[in-house]
Amino acid sequence: ITTKDIIKRIRHPNATKDRKGRLRVGAAIGVKEGEKGRADAVVAAGVDVLVLDIAHGHSTNAIKMIRHLKKEYPNVPLIAGNVATSDGTLALIDVGADAIKVGVGGGSICITRIVTGFGVPQITAIMDSYEIAHKHNIPIIADGGIRTSGDMTKALAAGAHTVMIGSLFAGTRESPGRIIQKKGRRYKVTRGMASLGATMSRTDTKQEEQDWNSVVPEGVEAMVPYRGSINDLLTQLVGGLRSGLSYAGATTIAELHENAEFMEMSPAGLTESKPHDVELM
Protein backbone atom coordinates (compact mmCIF):
# COMPACT_ATOMS: atom_id res chain seq x y z
CA ILE A 1 0.00 0.00 0.00
CA THR A 2 1.33 3.41 -0.99
CA THR A 3 0.44 6.95 0.01
CA LYS A 4 -1.26 7.30 -3.36
CA ASP A 5 -3.47 4.28 -2.58
CA ILE A 6 -4.50 5.81 0.75
CA ILE A 7 -5.34 9.14 -0.87
CA LYS A 8 -7.46 7.41 -3.52
CA ARG A 9 -9.30 5.43 -0.85
CA ILE A 10 -10.09 8.63 1.05
CA ARG A 11 -11.21 10.51 -2.07
CA HIS A 12 -13.14 7.60 -3.59
CA PRO A 13 -14.43 5.43 -0.72
CA ASN A 14 -17.18 3.89 -2.85
CA ALA A 15 -15.00 2.86 -5.79
CA THR A 16 -15.74 -0.65 -7.05
CA LYS A 17 -12.54 -2.66 -6.70
CA ASP A 18 -11.46 -6.27 -7.01
CA ARG A 19 -9.59 -8.30 -4.39
CA LYS A 20 -6.30 -6.79 -5.51
CA GLY A 21 -7.56 -3.25 -5.03
CA ARG A 22 -7.86 -2.55 -8.75
CA LEU A 23 -10.86 -0.80 -10.25
CA ARG A 24 -13.28 -3.29 -11.77
CA VAL A 25 -13.38 -3.06 -15.55
CA GLY A 26 -15.80 -4.35 -18.16
CA ALA A 27 -15.17 -4.71 -21.89
CA ALA A 28 -17.71 -4.50 -24.71
CA ILE A 29 -17.65 -7.28 -27.29
CA GLY A 30 -19.45 -7.32 -30.65
CA VAL A 31 -20.59 -10.28 -32.72
CA LYS A 32 -18.22 -10.20 -35.69
CA GLU A 33 -15.58 -12.90 -36.00
CA GLY A 34 -12.76 -10.48 -35.17
CA GLU A 35 -14.32 -9.79 -31.78
CA LYS A 36 -13.19 -13.21 -30.56
CA GLY A 37 -9.61 -11.97 -30.63
CA ARG A 38 -10.63 -8.88 -28.69
CA ALA A 39 -12.26 -11.10 -26.07
CA ASP A 40 -9.06 -13.15 -25.79
CA ALA A 41 -7.02 -10.00 -25.22
CA VAL A 42 -9.22 -8.37 -22.59
CA VAL A 43 -9.65 -11.61 -20.63
CA ALA A 44 -5.87 -12.08 -20.66
CA ALA A 45 -5.55 -8.53 -19.31
CA GLY A 46 -7.79 -9.42 -16.37
CA VAL A 47 -11.15 -7.93 -17.33
CA ASP A 48 -13.85 -8.41 -14.68
CA VAL A 49 -16.87 -8.73 -16.95
CA LEU A 50 -17.58 -9.09 -20.67
CA VAL A 51 -20.50 -7.23 -22.23
CA LEU A 52 -21.99 -8.49 -25.48
CA ASP A 53 -23.18 -5.08 -26.58
CA ILE A 54 -25.21 -4.81 -29.79
CA ALA A 55 -28.42 -3.00 -30.70
CA HIS A 56 -30.38 -6.19 -31.46
CA GLY A 57 -29.42 -8.80 -28.91
CA HIS A 58 -32.22 -11.22 -29.80
CA SER A 59 -30.42 -12.40 -32.93
CA THR A 60 -28.65 -15.48 -34.23
CA ASN A 61 -25.24 -13.78 -34.26
CA ALA A 62 -25.59 -12.69 -30.64
CA ILE A 63 -26.62 -16.16 -29.52
CA LYS A 64 -23.67 -17.73 -31.34
CA MET A 65 -21.22 -15.30 -29.74
CA ILE A 66 -22.65 -15.86 -26.25
CA ARG A 67 -22.20 -19.61 -26.67
CA HIS A 68 -18.60 -19.07 -27.77
CA LEU A 69 -17.75 -16.70 -24.92
CA LYS A 70 -19.26 -18.92 -22.23
CA LYS A 71 -17.47 -21.95 -23.64
CA GLU A 72 -14.09 -20.19 -23.77
CA TYR A 73 -14.42 -18.20 -20.54
CA PRO A 74 -16.96 -19.94 -18.28
CA ASN A 75 -15.69 -18.12 -15.19
CA VAL A 76 -15.93 -14.59 -16.62
CA PRO A 77 -19.36 -13.01 -16.03
CA LEU A 78 -21.16 -12.10 -19.26
CA ILE A 79 -23.72 -9.35 -19.67
CA ALA A 80 -25.69 -9.65 -22.92
CA GLY A 81 -28.07 -7.37 -24.78
CA ASN A 82 -29.86 -5.40 -25.80
CA VAL A 83 -33.32 -6.94 -25.78
CA ALA A 84 -36.77 -5.55 -25.06
CA THR A 85 -39.03 -8.61 -24.78
CA SER A 86 -39.47 -11.64 -22.57
CA ASP A 87 -38.67 -13.93 -25.52
CA GLY A 88 -35.41 -12.09 -26.16
CA THR A 89 -34.50 -12.27 -22.49
CA LEU A 90 -35.16 -16.00 -22.34
CA ALA A 91 -33.14 -16.65 -25.51
CA LEU A 92 -30.04 -15.03 -24.00
CA ILE A 93 -30.50 -16.71 -20.63
CA ASP A 94 -30.81 -20.12 -22.30
CA VAL A 95 -27.34 -19.81 -23.87
CA GLY A 96 -25.63 -18.71 -20.68
CA ALA A 97 -25.91 -14.94 -20.21
CA ASP A 98 -25.29 -13.97 -16.58
CA ALA A 99 -27.15 -10.65 -16.82
CA ILE A 100 -29.45 -9.09 -19.41
CA LYS A 101 -29.29 -5.54 -20.74
CA VAL A 102 -32.79 -4.28 -21.56
CA GLY A 103 -33.69 -1.35 -23.78
CA VAL A 104 -34.21 -0.73 -27.50
CA GLY A 105 -34.65 2.83 -28.74
CA GLY A 106 -35.10 4.60 -25.40
CA GLY A 107 -31.80 6.47 -25.23
CA SER A 108 -31.82 10.25 -25.60
CA ILE A 109 -29.65 10.11 -28.72
CA CYS A 110 -31.21 6.97 -30.21
CA ILE A 111 -33.65 7.08 -33.14
CA THR A 112 -34.01 3.32 -33.69
CA ARG A 113 -37.76 3.37 -33.08
CA ILE A 114 -38.25 6.18 -35.59
CA VAL A 115 -35.97 4.74 -38.28
CA THR A 116 -36.91 1.06 -37.99
CA GLY A 117 -40.35 1.09 -36.41
CA PHE A 118 -39.14 -1.33 -33.74
CA GLY A 119 -38.77 -0.83 -30.01
CA VAL A 120 -40.65 -1.12 -26.74
CA PRO A 121 -41.37 1.60 -24.16
CA GLN A 122 -38.72 1.15 -21.51
CA ILE A 123 -40.86 0.41 -18.44
CA THR A 124 -42.84 -2.19 -20.41
CA ALA A 125 -39.62 -3.77 -21.68
CA ILE A 126 -38.21 -3.99 -18.15
CA MET A 127 -41.40 -5.49 -16.73
CA ASP A 128 -41.70 -8.11 -19.47
CA SER A 129 -38.04 -9.09 -19.20
CA TYR A 130 -38.19 -9.23 -15.41
CA GLU A 131 -40.96 -11.83 -15.48
CA ILE A 132 -38.59 -14.27 -17.19
CA ALA A 133 -35.29 -13.19 -15.65
CA HIS A 134 -36.65 -13.37 -12.10
CA LYS A 135 -37.55 -17.04 -12.56
CA HIS A 136 -33.94 -17.80 -13.51
CA ASN A 137 -32.39 -15.52 -10.87
CA ILE A 138 -30.78 -13.39 -13.59
CA PRO A 139 -30.36 -9.63 -12.99
CA ILE A 140 -31.55 -6.97 -15.44
CA ILE A 141 -29.77 -3.77 -16.45
CA ALA A 142 -32.10 -0.99 -17.61
CA ASP A 143 -30.35 0.77 -20.50
CA GLY A 144 -31.85 4.00 -21.80
CA GLY A 145 -34.25 6.77 -20.87
CA ILE A 146 -32.73 7.78 -17.53
CA ARG A 147 -33.05 11.55 -17.16
CA THR A 148 -33.64 11.97 -13.42
CA SER A 149 -33.29 10.11 -10.15
CA GLY A 150 -37.02 9.46 -10.40
CA ASP A 151 -36.43 7.59 -13.66
CA MET A 152 -33.85 5.47 -11.86
CA THR A 153 -36.35 4.63 -9.13
CA LYS A 154 -39.04 3.69 -11.65
CA ALA A 155 -36.70 1.52 -13.71
CA LEU A 156 -35.60 -0.36 -10.60
CA ALA A 157 -39.18 -0.65 -9.34
CA ALA A 158 -40.19 -2.20 -12.67
CA GLY A 159 -37.70 -5.02 -12.19
CA ALA A 160 -34.22 -3.76 -13.01
CA HIS A 161 -31.32 -4.38 -10.64
CA THR A 162 -29.07 -1.75 -12.20
CA VAL A 163 -29.46 1.23 -14.52
CA MET A 164 -27.12 2.31 -17.29
CA ILE A 165 -26.69 6.04 -17.81
CA GLY A 166 -25.31 7.79 -20.88
CA SER A 167 -26.31 11.35 -21.78
CA LEU A 168 -26.88 12.34 -18.16
CA PHE A 169 -23.18 11.71 -17.50
CA ALA A 170 -22.01 12.97 -20.90
CA GLY A 171 -22.13 16.57 -19.71
CA THR A 172 -19.84 16.04 -16.74
CA ARG A 173 -16.27 17.21 -16.47
CA GLU A 174 -14.99 13.63 -16.39
CA SER A 175 -16.62 12.59 -19.68
CA PRO A 176 -14.63 12.60 -22.95
CA GLY A 177 -14.80 15.60 -25.22
CA ARG A 178 -14.24 19.33 -25.07
CA ILE A 179 -16.45 21.92 -23.44
CA ILE A 180 -17.99 24.19 -26.06
CA GLN A 181 -19.66 27.58 -25.73
CA LYS A 182 -22.97 28.47 -27.36
CA LYS A 183 -24.93 31.63 -26.64
CA GLY A 184 -23.08 32.12 -23.38
CA ARG A 185 -23.72 28.60 -22.09
CA ARG A 186 -21.38 25.63 -21.83
CA TYR A 187 -22.08 22.25 -23.42
CA LYS A 188 -20.40 18.97 -24.26
CA VAL A 189 -21.03 16.92 -27.39
CA THR A 190 -22.49 13.44 -27.17
CA ARG A 191 -23.32 11.04 -29.98
CA GLY A 192 -25.06 7.74 -30.40
CA MET A 193 -22.85 4.84 -31.43
CA ALA A 194 -25.17 4.34 -34.41
CA SER A 195 -24.97 7.99 -35.45
CA LEU A 196 -23.35 8.88 -38.76
CA GLY A 197 -20.35 10.49 -37.10
CA ALA A 198 -19.66 7.52 -34.83
CA THR A 199 -20.10 5.11 -37.73
CA MET A 200 -17.63 7.07 -39.84
CA SER A 201 -15.06 7.13 -37.03
CA ARG A 202 -15.16 3.33 -36.82
CA THR A 203 -14.79 2.88 -40.58
CA ASP A 204 -11.96 3.32 -43.07
CA THR A 205 -11.74 7.06 -43.64
CA LYS A 206 -10.57 6.46 -47.23
CA GLN A 207 -14.01 5.33 -48.36
CA GLU A 208 -15.50 7.37 -51.14
CA GLU A 209 -18.11 9.94 -50.20
CA GLN A 210 -20.90 8.11 -52.04
CA ASP A 211 -20.41 5.09 -49.76
CA TRP A 212 -21.92 7.06 -46.87
CA ASN A 213 -25.18 7.48 -48.75
CA SER A 214 -25.97 3.87 -47.93
CA VAL A 215 -25.50 4.37 -44.17
CA VAL A 216 -28.80 4.65 -42.29
CA PRO A 217 -28.04 6.17 -38.87
CA GLU A 218 -30.01 5.03 -35.83
CA GLY A 219 -28.54 7.69 -33.57
CA VAL A 220 -27.82 11.41 -33.53
CA GLU A 221 -25.08 13.78 -32.41
CA ALA A 222 -26.16 16.41 -29.92
CA MET A 223 -25.08 18.82 -27.21
CA VAL A 224 -25.81 18.33 -23.52
CA PRO A 225 -25.48 21.03 -20.85
CA TYR A 226 -22.19 21.01 -18.99
CA ARG A 227 -22.89 19.67 -15.48
CA GLY A 228 -19.57 20.03 -13.69
CA SER A 229 -18.20 17.25 -11.52
CA ILE A 230 -19.79 13.84 -11.72
CA ASN A 231 -19.45 13.59 -7.94
CA ASP A 232 -22.03 16.33 -7.40
CA LEU A 233 -24.39 14.77 -9.93
CA LEU A 234 -24.08 11.33 -8.33
CA THR A 235 -24.83 12.81 -4.92
CA GLN A 236 -28.14 14.15 -6.24
CA LEU A 237 -29.02 10.95 -8.10
CA VAL A 238 -28.25 8.66 -5.17
CA GLY A 239 -30.08 10.96 -2.76
CA GLY A 240 -33.18 10.96 -4.94
CA LEU A 241 -33.05 7.18 -5.31
CA ARG A 242 -32.75 6.64 -1.57
CA SER A 243 -35.72 8.90 -1.00
CA GLY A 244 -37.66 6.97 -3.64
CA LEU A 245 -36.98 3.69 -1.86
CA SER A 246 -38.21 5.19 1.39
CA TYR A 247 -41.53 6.15 -0.24
CA ALA A 248 -41.94 2.50 -1.23
CA GLY A 249 -41.12 1.32 2.28
CA ALA A 250 -38.07 -0.43 0.87
CA THR A 251 -34.51 -0.67 2.12
CA THR A 252 -33.26 -2.84 -0.76
CA ILE A 253 -33.90 -3.11 -4.49
CA ALA A 254 -35.51 -6.52 -3.93
CA GLU A 255 -38.00 -4.92 -1.53
CA LEU A 256 -38.64 -2.17 -4.08
CA HIS A 257 -39.55 -4.86 -6.62
CA GLU A 258 -42.09 -6.27 -4.18
CA ASN A 259 -43.55 -3.05 -2.80
CA ALA A 260 -43.80 -0.74 -5.81
CA GLU A 261 -47.14 -0.31 -7.54
CA PHE A 262 -47.59 1.29 -10.95
CA MET A 263 -50.61 3.24 -12.15
CA GLU A 264 -51.57 5.20 -15.23
CA MET A 265 -51.06 8.97 -15.12
CA SER A 266 -53.02 11.50 -17.15
CA PRO A 267 -51.43 14.58 -18.73
CA ALA A 268 -53.00 16.61 -15.91
CA GLY A 269 -51.33 14.37 -13.35
CA LEU A 270 -47.98 14.83 -15.06
CA THR A 271 -48.46 18.60 -15.06
CA GLU A 272 -49.11 18.74 -11.33
CA SER A 273 -46.05 16.54 -10.72
CA LYS A 274 -43.83 19.42 -11.83
CA PRO A 275 -43.52 22.95 -10.45
CA HIS A 276 -46.65 24.89 -11.42
CA ASP A 277 -48.43 28.18 -10.77
CA VAL A 278 -45.13 29.82 -9.87
CA GLU A 279 -42.34 31.59 -11.71
CA LEU A 280 -39.10 29.71 -11.24
CA MET A 281 -36.08 31.69 -10.06
Describe this structure in words.
Helices cover about 40% and strands about 15% of the residues. It has about 280 residues and is of the alpha/beta class. The strands form two sheets. Strands 1-2-3-4-5-6 form a six-stranded parallel beta sheet. Strands 7-8-9 form a three-stranded antiparallel beta sheet. Helix 4 runs parallel beside helix 6 and helix 7 (about 150-155) packs across helix 10. The chain starts with a helix and ends in a 9-residue tail after the last helix. The mean pLDDT is about 90.
Order of helices and strands: HEHEHEHEHHEHEHEEHEHHH
Please identify which CATH superfamily of the largest domain we are dealing with: Aldolase class I
Strand percentage: 5-15%
Contiguous low-pLDDT stretches (5 residues minimum) are: none
Number of helices: 12
Distance between the termini: 49 Å
CATH architecture of the largest domain: Alpha-Beta Barrel
Main sheet: strands, sense, barrel: 6 strands, parallel
The rounded Rg comes to: 20 Å
* CATH topology label of the largest domain: TIM Barrel
**Secondary structure category:** alpha/beta
Could you name the key traits of this structure?
281 residues; TIM Barrel; 2 domains; 3-stranded antiparallel beta sheet; 12 helices; globular
Layout of secondary structure:
Elements: H1 3-11, E1 26-29, H2 35-44, E2 49-53, H3 60-72, E3 78-83, H4 86-94, E4 99-102, H5 112-116, H6 122-135, E5 140-143, H7 149-157, E6 162-164, H8 167-170, E7 179-182, E8 185-191, H9 196-201, E9 221-225, H10 230-247, H11 253-259, H12 267-272
Parallel strand pairs: 1-2, 2-3, 3-4, 4-5, 5-6
Antiparallel strand pairs: 7-8, 8-9
